[in-house]
Structure formats: C-alpha cells, structure tokens
C-alpha cells in the first residue's frame, strides 16, 4: 500500500512528457524536459500556436504545484517508514500516518485532475474530449507516476 501511495502521488506531471525524459524527485521539470515532453501533446492534438502557448504557460505554472505535492508525499511516506521502524505491530499512530499518506496522495491526484481539465479547456472541444478520454484512465491507474501519465501520449 505504501508504494502505491508514493508512486501515484508523482503521477501527474509525467503525463506531460514522453517516457524516458526527466525523472528523479523533481519530476524532470527542467525547461528542456518541459519543452521536449510537451511536444508530443502539440503534435498528437494538432494544436495551433495560440493554444500551444497557453498550454505551455499552464504547465509552467503547474510544475511548482507538482513539486510541492511530491514533497508532501515524500514527507508523509517518511513518517510512515519511521513509525514502522519503531514497532512490530500496527499502532494508532501508524494507522493515522497511513491515512495521512493516502489523503496526501488523493490531494495530489485531485490537483493533477484539475490541471488536466484546465489543459482540456484550452483545446477545441473535439480535441479536448479526446484528450480527456485518453488521460482519464491514466489518472486512475494506481501506482502510476504523474510524470508517466502526462508524458506518454499513448504508450505505457
């Protein structure tokens, strides 16, 4: 359960970059990773320059949110790990730490989903629907990194 909480919490931003780009705790959020990672999105949805510029700006604004969420997940998981090292059974403190880690994970996924809806809102309706239909299932797959969801346009 702990690994699912940790993995899923990072899931959003990688949706925006092709597999194999970036990584690490910053999610590969450097400018080079952003530009190359979003390229698939522009190409896959045939986005015009005006729409593309707006989506790039939206992603740029989202990266700090994602980074903060990653930090929250890391801290929540560290607390669970610390409590596990000090016991040989389930304790009320450990249960609460697990619940907090799950709440943090849910907060992260909700932030990502809001971001995906914001991106879709910038697209023409038919492209937005296709984008949401393709991204939606990736967002609900447990254990997927946010980066995986956002960066791999089609594949897994």
Overall description:
The chain has helices at 2-9, 31-45, 49-85, 92-121, 125-140, 146-151. The protein has one domain (2-142): Four Helix Bundle (Hemerythrin (Met), subunit A) (Up-down Bundle), CATH 1.20.120.1490. The protein has six helices and no strands. The protein has 156 residues and is mainly α. The protein is elongated and about 55 Å long. 72% of the residues lie in helices and 0% in strands. It starts with a helix and ends in a 5-residue tail after the last helix.
Give the secondary structure arrangement, pairings included.
Layout lengths: L1 H8 L21 H15 L3 H37 L6 H30 L3 H16 L5 H6 L5
Write out key terms for the chains shown:
about 160 residues, Four Helix Bundle (Hemerythrin (Met), subunit A), mainly alpha, disordered N terminus, 6 helices, about 70% helix
DSSP helix fraction: over 70%
Main beta-sheet strand count, sense and barrel state: none
Shape: elongated
Q: Which fold name corresponds to the CATH topology?
A: Four Helix Bundle (Hemerythrin (Met), subunit A)
- Helical stretch tally: 6
Strand segment count: 0
> What portion of the residues fall into strands of 2 or more residues?
under 5%
Gap between N and C termini: 21 Å
Instruction: Report the CATH C-level class.
Output: Mainly Alpha
Question: Would you tell me the overall average pLDDT?
Answer: 77
Radius of gyration: 17 Å
């Amino acid at each position: 359960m702990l690994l699912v909480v940790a993995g899923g919490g990072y899931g959003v931003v990688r949706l925006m970059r092709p597999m194999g780009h970036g990584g690490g705790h910053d999610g590969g959020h450097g400018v080079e990773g952003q530009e190359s990672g979003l390229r698939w999105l522009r190409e896959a949805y045939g986005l015009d320059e005006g729409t593309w510029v707006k989506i790039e700006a939206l992603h740029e604004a989202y990266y700090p949110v994602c980074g903060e969420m990653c930090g929250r997940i890391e801290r929540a998981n560290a607390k669970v790990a610390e409590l596990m090292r000090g016991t040989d059974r389930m304790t009320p403190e450990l249960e609460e730490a697990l619940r907090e880690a799950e709440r943090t994970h849910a907060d992260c996924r909700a932030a990502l989903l809001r971001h995906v809806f914001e991106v879709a809102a910038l697209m023409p309706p038919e492209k937005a629907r296709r984008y949401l239909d393709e991204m939606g299932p990736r967002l609900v797959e447990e254990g997927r990194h946010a980066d995986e969801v956002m960066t791999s346009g089609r594949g897994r």
